[in-house]
Amino acid sequence: MYLADSRSTKAATTGAGRTAAGSGDAGSAASRSTDPAAVPGIRPGRRAAAVPGTVLALGAVSLITDVSSEMVGAVLPLYVVAGLGLSPLGFGLLDGINNGVGALVRLVGGHAADGGRGRHKAVAAIGYGLSAVCKPLLLAHTLPLISAVLAVDRTGKGLRTAPRDALISLATAPEHRGRAFGVHRAMDTTGALLGPLVAFALLRFAADGYDAVFAVSACVAALGVLVLLLFVPGRAATAAPAGGPRPALRDSLALLRLPALRRLTLAAVLLGLTTVSDSFLYLLLQRRLDLPAHLFPLLPLGTAAAFLLLAVPFGAAADRIGRRRLFLLGHLVLLAGYGLLLAPLHAWWAAPVVLLLHGSFYAATDGVLAAAASATVPAEQQGAGLALVGTGQALARFGCSLAFGAGWTLWGGRPVLAVAAAALAVAAGAAFLLIRTPGSPHTPDSPPDTGTTEEHPA
């Protein structure tokens, strides 16, 4: 059986760490009942909506913001490698900034957002605003400034991610969180789908293609901040008790004492260490197929289209079959994509299939991981708990980007991808052992993550 299941348990919380008593594991206060009256933001006597309005509003903000960020992300790998002459190792460092810097501030954002009513939106707004104000500086066309812009942009992403996901979790009934995160990620991915299309059109038809991409991206990012301020509720529900003490930062870090959260975080870290960056994957496809430069921004469309189509059904499936189970299966799908990319095939259909598998991987893991993590922490510390899992995964992917870039520089892209594929297979086996409940039969956890959690002592 997997880590979270539907069995009832008596858990006692001790201090800010909420450590488990006996064989029980501390669960989220919002996830201890499927009664709508127990979910923040849902009036007693009313049925909890599977997808609340707050989720849709945040999805619109993410859609607009992702149009902006993916416009830049679609052209940046080719721009810095082919246009500015950066080596794969250098690009690995630059791409690592995309993940590493944001990870370093994600804990700060999650902790700051847990302080009371309205703070989740306020911290998220600061994060979105940072990403918007730095975009015009990309027009400088120098590597140091581009690196600085990426650092600020990812700082903004790190600040906003945990508060945004906490808003989704707190606004949604526990049994519907997989679906709600799936809807949000589908809307987010719609932006990821539109961004490369806009970048492609600008590169194709604008006189100064890269400048046009960077300028339009800045304007779209500002629109996203405006939508957040106007349409996301300012007094979003929080589970912090009225007048209660605000958790200290050490209390947020102490959440790792919870066995459920600790094991999920370790599994995410192991798998993140073997997850090759999207940009490297697209560069490998572009070189394998010898695609012209103006077609490169279209490669992320395959991933985004698959993610968009599958995010909602996969999120709903996670609510039924188990979120941790689907999270692991998603990495096996990614492993299949690596295998196809390494196979001695030169047929035109190989690239679309790889992109389909890549998008399926994200649909099975991105929102699903957040939904799984939300059931392992107290409701008043949702931001910090989600940030811990996300930070571990992001730092691991930062390390993978550095290692993959160095390996590509020394040995070439395909040999180092083979090493990454083998490491991913090992990491998937280790993650399975981490997040299954010891001593339990191998049966599906149904319904998963919706009630209190139970775990035998490690």
UniProtKB/TrEMBL annotation:
PANTHER family to which the protein is assigned, alphabetical: C-METHYLTRANSFERASE, MAJOR FACILITATOR SUPERFAMILY TRANSPORTER
Membrane recorded as keyword: yes
Compositionally biased tracts (Low complexity): 9-34
Keyword terms: Membrane, Transmembrane, Transmembrane helix
Coiled-coil boundaries: none
Subcellular location: Cell membrane
Region named Disordered: 1-44, 438-458
InterPro entries linked to this entry: MFS (IPR011701), MFS_dom (IPR020846), MFS_trans_sf (IPR036259)
PROSITE patterns in UniProt: MFS (PS50850)
Topology within the bilayer: Multi-pass membrane protein
Sequence intervals crossing the membrane: 48-65, 71-94, 186-206, 212-232, 264-285, 291-314, 326-349, 416-435
Source organism superkingdom: Bacteria
Domain Major facilitator superfamily (MFS) profile: 54-439
Record's keyword annotation contains Nuclease: no
Annotated protein name in UniProt: MFS transporter
